[in-house]
Write a structure and sequence with these properties.
The chain folds into three domains: 15-104, Fumarase C, Chain B, domain 1 (Orthogonal Bundle); 109-206 and 216-357, Fumarase/aspartase (Central domain) (Fumarase C, Chain A, domain 2); 366-424, Orthogonal Bundle (Ribonucleotide Reductase Protein R1, domain 1). The chain is built from 19 helices and six strands. It has helices spanning 14-20, 23-26, 30-47, 52-71, 83-95, 108-143, 164-189, 208-215, 224-229, 232-259, 286-309, 323-347, 352-360, 366-375, 380-397, 406-412, 420-423, 426-431, 441-455; strands at residues 149-154, 157-163, 191-192, 219-220, 266-267, 349-350. The strands form three sheets. It has a two-stranded antiparallel sheet with strand order 1-2. A two-stranded parallel ribbon has the order 3-4. Strands 5-6 form a two-stranded antiparallel ribbon. 40% of the residues are buried.
Length: 456
């Protein structure tokens, strides 16, 4: 039975059903559909559109359906057009005529808009919890490496010394911004469209704020046309998830590089690595490669919905049914990506000796050498030139700044003294960058504490 049967007659062509039916993907919203219907029926009874007895009967029937689906006693009929049709048909079969009154003062247009908002709000909570778990893992690992010196990079060239703890906390800050964006998105998602009807509201005396209160929404939509045709909240979520996946992809790229023999800064645990079908020596970081690759999928989901919405006139158009597959794919992809990274990170083995060796061989203390000269009264631009020539000399002689003799230093400037070696020590270089947000160990500990406080 089609909810819209009456205007059309005869059987529906199976090809129409194939392209029109959405239960194959919207069935995952059964809980939200039923919960929204319970609130709607409760309100209808409160305002007298249906009798209190009918309202109670409908609510009890809906609760029974929800309980049976979740226990496995009731299987969703995948031949139905959508989840709304299945729930209403099952309710009517169970309680009779009262079930046919559930849809009073409601259209599938505002019903599905409600369902998807409720579903996304629930998923945002889950994504936020997962992102917080990854932030927590980053904090845990960073705390154990506040003095593990490593190169910081610009242009993928060794630039200045930092610590592994400082490096990891950069990603924690990115994720905190992702969490903020998701929570902001949730606030705009929880605006009640129910009561908008098909597009022009309804003649029934609905109490929309009461339904919003029952469902924990922040308010009601203020225009019925916009109420059924708005998908900004879905686009906002896809945008937020795309940014989140971009951050996960950048982190994954770091792990892929660091895991290589060329870097060997980290070794992933065996249970988070794969091998090669032909090369027995291989141990591959497939997890991070896949997260990096799946990022493009989420970008594609955002573009799918942007493209579907770009030229739609008001109000509801069937094109908007395409929002769910893109949304669900993005949510599932982010869910999987966030689920694997925290345990992978917590079980990884980092190699401080390799990081320090890389830091020592890249002249990343050259800026500190210039700063040393500045503190001796040399203008920075002159000090910059001297240190540049020192580095060139080291390259030609196969030396580092640490292995130059004091006599060699004094060939370039008389301001150099024995204390230069302390000034260019890598840990000293890091420790002296002692400003809020800097890589000095105590500052990294401050950042970790602040971050954990933000997690609540």
């Amino acid at each position: 039975m089609k909810l819209w049967a009456g205007r059309t007659g005869g059987d529906v062509d199976e090809r129409l059903s194939a392209i029109n039916n959405s239960i194959g993907f919207d069935s995952r919203m059964y809980k939200q559909d039923i919960t929204g219907s319970i609130a709607h029926a409760t309100m209808l009874g409160k305002v007298g559109v249906i009798t209190p007895e009918e309202s109670e009967q409908i609510v009890a029937g809906l609760k029974g359906i929800l309980s049976d689906i979740e226990s496995g006693a009731l299987q969703i009929d995948m031949t139905c057009e959508d989840i709304h049709t299945f729930v209403e048909a099952t309710l009517t079969a169970r309680i009779g005529t009262a079930g046919k009154k559930l849809h009073t003062a409601r259209s599938r247009n505002d019903q599905v808009a409600l369902d998807i908002r409720m579903y996304l709000a629930d998923q945002i909570d889950r994504t936020v919890d997962q992102a917080k778990d990854l932030v927590s893992a980053l904090c845990d690992v960073a705390e154990g490496h506040i003095e593990t010196v490593m190169p910081g990079y610009t242009h993928l060239q060794r630039a200045q010394p930092v610590t592994l703890g400082h490096y990891l906390m950069a990603y924690a800050q990115m994720l905190l911004r992702d969490i903020d964006r998701l929570e902001d998105c949730k606030a705009r998602t929880l605006i009640l469209p129910l009561g908008s009807g098909a597009l022009a509201g309804t003649t029934y005396p609905l109490d929309r704020p009461y339904v919003a209160e029952l469902l924990g929404f922040n308010g009601i939509s203020m225009n019925s046309l916009d109420g059924v045709s708005d998908r900004d909240f879905a686009l906002e979520l896809l945008s937020d998830l795309s940014i989140l996946m971009m951050h996960l992809s950048r982190f994954s790229e770091e792990i892929c590089l660091w895991n290589s023999w060329e870097f060997k800064f980290v070794t992933l645990a065996d249970n988070f690595s794969t091998g090669s079908s032909i090369m027995p020596q291989k141990k591959n970081p497939d997890i991070t490669e896949l997260v990096r690759g799946k990022t493009g999928r989420v970008y594609g989901d955002l573009m799918t919905l942007l493209t579907a919405m770009k030229a739609l006139p008001l109000a509801y158009n069937k094109d908007m049914q395409e929002d769910k597959e893109a949304l669900f794919d993005a949510i599932d992809t982010v869910d999987l990506s966030l689920s694997v990274l925290p345990p992978m990170l917590r079980t990884a083995t980092f190699h401080p000796e390799n990081m320090k060796k890389a830091a020592a061989g890249g002249f990343i203390n050259a800026t500190d050498c210039a700063d040393y000269m500045v503190k001796k009264g040399v203008p920075f631009r002159d000090a910059y030139g001297v240190c540049g020539r020192l580095v060139r000399y080291c390259v030609e002689q196969g030396k580092t700044l640490e292995t130059l003799t004091l006599d060699e230093y004094r060939q370039f400037s008389p301001v150099f003294d024995a204390d230069v070696y302390q000034a260019i020590d890598l840990l000293t270089c890091v420790s002296q960058r002692d400003i809020p947000g800097g890589p000095a160990p105590r500052r990294v500990l401050e950042t970790i504490a602040h971050t954990r406080q933000r997690l609540g």
